[in-house]
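Worked problem 6 (solution included).
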Amino acid sequence: MYPPWDAPTSLQAQKTQTWQLKYFLNIPVNEPIDFSYKHTLRFRIMCCNIDQAE
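Solution. The predicted structure is:
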């Protein structure tokens, strides 16, 4: 797993981080949390689980 604050050095790790970044939820420190993204994230996880089951 390569979170946004990580700086991978290998090309493979950088490619992996690129597709993983869309699955990280940004939680700001001094701002309200955008809970509308939570539904999108849950949908993506459910879709991934369905794809893996096949």
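Discussion: The mean pLDDT is 74.
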